Amino acid sequence: xxxxxxxxxxxxxxxxxxxxxxxxxxxxxxxxxxxxxxxxxxxxxxxxxxxxxxxxxxxxxxxxxxxxxxxxxxxxxxxxxxxxxxxxxxxxxxxxxxxxxxxxxxxxxxxxxxxxxxxxxxxxxxxxxxxxxxxxxxxxxxxxxxxxxxxxxxxxxxxxxxxxxxxxxxxxxxxxxxxxxxxxxxxxxxxxxxxxxxxxxxxxxxxxxxxxxxxxxxxxxxxxxxxxxxxxxxxxxxxxxxxxxxxxxxxxxxxxxxxxxxxxxxxxxxxxxxxxxxxxxxxxxxxxxxxxxxxxxxxxxxxxxxxxxxxxxxxxxxxxxxxxxx
Length: 326
Hints:
8-stranded parallel sheet, about 25% strand
């Protein structure tokens, strides 16, 4: 019989982190550990207030599901026990890890995926003044792919400043729902001229029903508007990509299903993350093997990471060590 433990941890963010919805200086995560016959698997999630989640609420949800999980500790059973979201992600990841460790088979093999290869991740520049963002871009100019957090008014000046600071880096931008319909018409042609490759979640979720014939000189990616397979039909013809995050889908199991469905419906895929440690990135790394864009830089934004953690060489991230996960 499996034994489940759940607890929270706090990890400091290097220099703080700001998006359109606010700033923070630390990342609070929930960790689940499942043990059986002296072997343990672990998983991590980051509760997200935008989706009505909190540390306390996620722990409560996991504790409520604990008897059922300990009785029937399979990932398929988990989808019947818990709803999608951060709580299920932590448990799902822990069950993947436990299965890998007890079977002696790596998680990618269990998932039917080829052996993972290193991935280039975005490196995120948080929202600030054009001057501060240009300075941060200059510091990160050697990184091949930058993700720029935007906030609405003044965004064109911010991107111009980032481009000046990092003239050779590829750039994607994330508005985090901060734009208006007028900005969605006016900004993309300018951003295209600045070499921006993709715009993530320009409008608030629920306001995606703009004219599908609207010109998209820069591809659009749905994040807050895309959670599971059931959300894809409303995005068809309006978005070109979806951002798959395990804390939204409720784990790697559902994320892989969502990626398959998205590909079948003509979407490209970005695999992203909340701001967590290497333990949270590890299962997402497998999903990232199938993505056009990877945004798993959480550990790079922290003051410290788990030991052992995922190895990064600049923005190139390597498969997680087996001691960490999978």
